[in-house]
Amino acid sequence: MSGPAILWFRRDLRLRDHPALLDAAAAADGRVLAVFVLDPALLEPSGAVRRTFLFRCLRALDEQLGGRLLVLRGDPVEVVPELARSAGAVGVHVSADTGPYGRERDAQVRQALEADGVGWHPRGSPYAVTPGRVTKNDGSLYKVYTPFRRAWGDHGWPRPADSDETSARWLDGSIHGGVSIPDDEVHDLPLPDAGESAANDAWRSFRESGLHDYEGARDRPDRSGTSRMSPYLRWGCVHPRTLLADLAGDRSQGASSYRNELAFRDFYADVLWNWPSSARHNFDRRFDRIRLDWDRELFAAWREGRTGFPIVDAGMRQLLAEGWMHNRVRMIVASFLVKDLHLPWWWGARHFMHRLVDGDLASNQHGWQWAAGSGTDAAPYFRIFNPTTQGEKFDPDGAYVRYYVPELRGIDGKAVHQPWKLTAQRPEGYPQPLVEHAAERREALARYAEIKNA
């Protein structure tokens, strides 16, 4: 009898809608060895919050597999071919990794496997449309979201794959050694429930109670208006193709808006695929010459929620307390860092990746470049968020600020967004604004003008 197929889980920690699982089962008469590799190159830069959520997702997957998930630790370039040799595997099946590190790693793994006569079989990716497949009619690449969104919709995506835990005869990998799934590193943060079942429950709840109001509520951090699906999409506990299939035929504003958000996720992954250097460098290289400040004390005040601007401080404290931040507030705090404090966007991006449970390289880095003006947006120069008016607009009663900034709980209504104007209710222990927004807005525009025509 020929050997088993290896299914190497990465950002696809689920059993439903898993094309690579079906391929693996078909290749080896159903005999599949499930494996996950704890790769230090990926784990060490991740924050404790994201690692903890990953470990919980792995435990959930292992339970679905009846305790048969083989967990290895080490460099996959060495570990995966070694496992294939010891198991006599006929092939290794994966969902394709489209990030810069994953592409290079997979090329090396494939080379090592093929030298041993073992097949390498990628199928699908963590995205509705695999990055690199949406191009203009002349073959050129999209740099702006809106035309990409139209082409993405026209391209379409496959139906969800008909797979589940019964699609394979899962082999016990314990004879190949392995390590235990690490213990949680974070215990005091309210992280979402982990795993595929939790992802499906969260999606079902959102569709039933949140989708209808999504278009109007998603920008309000004082409400539960977002789907909170991003941690599950990050680790593939559910595939966006599944969500899109559930939304098929729904022409409501909420469904349309949600499809647009999934398209944005695919767009940023596509940008990273086509321009891998954009993970670390300005997409618009003119911004390499912009004047930046390098004040670590200002950065620490921003990071700890001590800027004196309530909506900014509430967002940064939410991140520290929950490992998550509302998306509208992410844009506000990012704009404040790069356009009020004039600090490098990559400082903020690195802090987010370290703290966010849903930290995703493509979305995070390009979202930060959108805020900085150095990314794919066609007209970024004049977009400078006023943190006070943003707070008054999207947290009109001040409930979000009062929840995360206890020093301001004695201030009623929207006055909480300008505590420096108060005399009788002046809060004790809350800092004065670090900067004057109007002056820093003028300074940011002056710095942009210096490079605009470079």
What report would you give on this structure?
The protein folds into three domains: 1-125, 3-Layer(aba) Sandwich (Rossmann fold), CATH 3.40.50.620; 126-161 and 196-274, Serine Threonine Protein Phosphatase 5, Tetratricopeptide repeat (Alpha Horseshoe); 285-452, DNA Cyclobutane Dipyrimidine Photolyase, subunit A, domain 3. With 454 residues, the protein is mostly helical. The mean pLDDT is 96. It starts with a strand and ends with a helix. Strands 1, 2, 3, 4, 5 and 6 form a six-stranded parallel β-sheet that branches. The radius of gyration is 23 Å and the shape is globular. The chain is built from 19 helices and six strands.
Write the layout of secondary structure elements.
Elements: E1 5-9, H1 19-27, E2 31-38, H2 40-43, H3 48-64, E3 70-73, H4 76-87, E4 91-94, H5 100-115, E5 119-122, H6 145-155, E6 169-170, H7 196-209, H8 214-217, H9 230-234, H10 240-247, H11 253-274, H12 296-304, H13 310-322, H14 327-340, H15 345-355, H16 361-372, H17 387-394, H18 399-404, H19 437-452
Parallel strand pairs: 1-2, 1-4, 2-3, 2-6, 4-5
Identify the CATH homologous superfamily of the largest domain: DNA Cyclobutane Dipyrimidine Photolyase, subunit A, domain 3
Q: How widely separated are the two ends?
A: 66 Å
Assign the structural class, choosing from mainly alpha, mainly beta, alpha/beta, alpha+beta, or little secondary structure.
mainly alpha
Principal-axes geometry comes out as: globular
Briefly, what CATH class of the largest domain? Mainly Alpha
Low-confidence stretches: none
Let me know the average pLDDT.
Answer: 96
- CATH architecture heading of the largest domain: Orthogonal Bundle
Relative strand content: 5-15%
- Quickly count the domains: 3
As for the CATH topology of the largest domain, it is: DNA Cyclobutane Dipyrimidine Photolyase, subunit A, domain 3
Number of helices: 19
What would you report as the Rg, rounded to the nearest angstrom?
A: 23 Å
Main β-sheet description:
6 strands, parallel
Pfam families: DNA_photolyase (PF00875), FAD_binding_7 (PF03441)
Catalytic activity: cyclobutadipyrimidine (in DNA) = 2 pyrimidine residues (in DNA)
Protein name: Deoxyribodipyrimidine photo-lyase
EC number: 4.1.99.3
